């Protein structure tokens, strides 16, 4: 156990964070003016402890949901429009078509099975949440609108844009052009039955989409030895209504981490930067994208890792066994979780959400959520899977109020994040292990090659990852034998992130933002695993794409190998 971290954890108090949660329980942070007040409350809480805060005020492109309804068979059903769907106050009417899921899953990862012939010109009724991957596919297939049947009594807010942050001109064509509406399970089942019997419906949606000035508080806690390098701890402060569990508890967690570290800043080697984002839901990560764009060069040159803090400290959330993190940070996460909670954590591949805005720059990351309800606890309460609030189904609803927060769970999560941040900030050699990433790449390439068979050759990628793995083994052995100084080792470790994170998590170039859609491992060559479904006339086009993707992967792996070898 890190002696300093253990000492700092004893300084954790709940007075300040719980006070912020109580204030947030009476403060909506959905509309821009309400969200700005939330940012001011965070700044006031920091100021009360003498912590300097910089308040940025960027103009963000936001979509603010208003009213929505679905009318069918003489009945008007309550509904919510997801952010960025088309605003059609006058409504659109059409035939209903029920689109079942392509495969079993949770409400967060079901994908409708649709073809253009099925849904063209019709209003598709799907089961699950109104999410970008669902709606974009249906819009592309010609649907006139979408009704998402949520899995419970409550209707959940959401967003359906696939654009990450503020769009570039070329992105504007990807803004949703059809209306969407979420309804609850009871009403949704009636609409599904109506769709199956050939009924019609009318969707009305009202949204305000445009540019809004949003506050964005940032704290810099300077290190004493390598102050230019920093760990970035971040989480969004805008919420749907009061949003206590998503993400008032996260804001409170970050506040207490900031307080403890500020009072012990003379003990930090590297700096710690904390940022509270606006535009998370209504801007599709607009605040963090603005920050990444504005400070891209500083992030590229100096950020050693980033950690997302979303929905900690919620009731009944006692499970730390599944934590999102990149492979190179898995051993760090496992150690921190074991030290703080006594549990054994398994790695989950980070999905394309939760303000993981820094993949294209190439920054190692860990955490999205931390504490979650166990599967047994969810089953006992009859809960379905949601994206936050520790698993409480109040997520993205009016029910996300003070009752969702839990003092004991919050205290443990504060300790967890404090331990993780301090461990990285004070490490002589950064606690990232690229051998784990190399092993992940080797397994991914082998899986893709097996699926492709003799239709595409990935052996150049296999050779390149074997060479990198061998160099990494020698590199870490040299570190363990004190044959490489910490400064040289850290430059290599940080440089590897800039090379290897993008090829594992992005398709686009550095300093841009990939769409808000999940990507498979090593996405440039992932289609090698899907050749079975490619018609004969398309094979040549797909293999050409794969050849270019293989070139990207091989070039990156060889660049990484040269970087490692330069330190040996």
Structure report:
The structure is a single chain. The chain is built from 16 helices and 15 strands. With 568 residues, it is an alpha/beta fold. It folds into 3 domains: 16-58 and 221-425, Aminopeptidase (3-Layer(aba) Sandwich); 63-212, Glucose Oxidase, domain 1 (3-Layer(bba) Sandwich); 434-565, Transcription Elongation Factor S-II, Chain A (Up-down Bundle), CATH 1.20.930. The strands form 3 sheets. A 7-stranded mixed β-sheet has the order 3-2-8-4-5-6-7, with helices on both faces. It has a 6-stranded mixed β-sheet with strand order 1-9-11-10-12-15. Strands 13-14 form a two-stranded parallel sheet. Strand 4, helix 4 (116-119) and strand 5 (123-127) form a beta-alpha-beta unit. Helix 10 crosses helix 12 (407-425). The longest helix is centred in the last third of the chain and has 27 residues, at 539-565. The radius of gyration is 24 Å and the shape is globular. The mean pLDDT is 95. Pfam families: PA, Peptidase_M28. Residues 93-191 form the PA domain. One of its GO terms (molecular function) is carboxypeptidase activity.
CATH architecture of the largest domain: 3-Layer(aba) Sandwich
In the CATH hierarchy, what is the superfamily of the largest domain? Zn peptidases
Q: How many distinct folded domains?
A: 3
**Overall morphology:** globular
Describe how the helices and strands are arranged.
Blueprint: H1 3-9, H2 15-24, H3 32-47, E1 54-56, E2 59-72, E3 75-78, E4 88-98, H4 116-119, E5 123-127, H5 132-140, E6 145-149, E7 180-183, H6 185-196, E8 200-213, E9 216-221, E10 226-236, H7 244-263, E11 270-277, H8 286-294, H9 296-302, E12 303-308, E13 322-324, H10 330-341, E14 346-348, E15 365-366, H11 375-381, H12 407-425, H13 434-452, H14 459-480, H15 486-505, H16 539-565
Helix pairs in contact: 1-12, 2-3, 2-7, 7-12, 10-12, 13-14, 14-16, 15-16
